[in-house]
Amino acid sequence: MGHRQKARTESAGENRDERTGQGQHMRVIGIDPGLRNLGWGVIDTDGNRMSHVANGIVHGTGEALAARLLALYEGLTDVIARFAPDTAAIEQTFVNRDGAGTLKLGQARGVAMLVPAQAGLDVGEYAPNQVKKTVVGVGHADKRQVEHMVRLQLPGIEIAGTDAADALAIALCHAHFARAGRRLEAAAKRAPA
Q1: What are the mean pLDDT values of the chain's consecutive 10-residue runs (193 residues total)?
Q2: 20-186 belongs to CATH 3.30.420.10
Q3: Residues belonging to the active site
Q4: Comparing C-alpha atoms, which of 83, 6, 98 is closest to residue 42?
Q5: Are 78 and 1 in contact (CB under 8 A)?
Q6: Domain map of the chain by residue range?
């Protein structure tokens, strides 16, 4: 399996929100799909705190498309089994002028959605501009700005590459929206009927 991992693990206990009785701890995997390089990043959230667990890149090896897709499938399956996330998030694909390239990326994205779904995880989808706006504050940020903000929000991490940085940004975006959704759900439960 041609993937590499830069990992730092954190211990994580489950805390409960006293008002709702629901746990606030959540482990999120963000996935940046690609046919040659599939970035992944795992974070833990505990209330408003986020911490880095691991990140890396699964390499689609081989010349044949089927071999690359298999390598992505096996590598991502291993990552999910190893880090046991509670939820997953993936970047939506944008259509570009190269129809064949877009189709191949779509196949890699299919693998990236299948693996967490097969593990029983919900998979959130986010547009690239939404991820950038959530993490950087600007929807058209470049890769350097995204990586810089990921480093600020997850201090002290080693990032395996730009694909892993993008995956961590996707995980941060998903954690932000999941936290907002939990607050809304808790408020709805407290509201009089």
Answers
A1: 33 33 79 96 92 97 94 98 97 78 88 97 94 90 92 94 96 87 54 67
A2: yes
A3: 32, 91, 163
A4: 83
A5: yes
A6: 20-186
